[in-house]
Amino acid sequence: MHEVRTPYTLLLDADIELTLGIVIELQQKARNENLALVSLMAEPPMKNFIERLLMPAFIFFFKLLYPFGLANKPVSHVAAAAGGCILVETQALRLIGAFANLHNALIDDCTLATHIKRAGLRTFIGLSHAARTAYTQLRYSLILLVSCTLIMTSMFWAAPLGFCCYLFRKLILLAR
Q: Considering only Cβ atoms within 10 Å of each terminal Cβ, which end of the chain, N or C, has fewer?
């Protein structure tokens, strides 16, 4: 962090492609709204009913775990960031110890946002069409999208279903 001499540091995943002018827009948002961290989660193109119906599951589940509305409120303890595209004040990174606090983090981008928020600074996360998405990695394949959605949905419901089966089994044993 000592080498960075710019007011902002841009963090991107290696496979992210930004549209022209998006970095300037991120800087303006940060300055206009006094934000130390601005993060964008790439939203896939949803041009037809099927694409809108089957919005990639990872975005849906991420927003369930980290509601953007709460994450964007300064008084909320919820903090979130999408590691694919983060613009953060360099001074804020220095204040929180840069990346030294992230070595053992399970979700490093959200942990970064948590440290920024705990330091009393403001954060923002939103969706954008201005960045490439994992849907691109699925080669815009409806079959792969449906498969991933089904797998993630089944994982989401596996624990409650397993618990219900466990309770049902216990009830049967008690009834004997």
A: C
| Residue 75 or 159, more confident | 75
Q: Tens digit of pLDDT for each residue in 121-140?
A: 999 999 876 655 555 556 66
Predicted TM-score (pTM) of this structure: 0.69
Q: Which CATH class is domain 8-140?
A: alpha beta
Bridge-based pairing of strands 85-89 and 37-42 is antiparallel
Cα–Cα distance between 118 and 47 in angstroms, integer? 39
**Helix%, strand%, coil% for the chain, nearest 5:** 50, 15, 35
In the chain, beta strands by DSSP E:
8-12, 37-42, 85-89, 123-128
Inter-residue contact 155 to 162 (CB < 8 Å): no
Q: Are 66 and 110 in contact (CB under 8 A)?
A: yes
Alpha carbon distance 52, 10 (integer Å) = 30
Q: Are 62 and 56 in contact (CB under 8 A)?
A: no
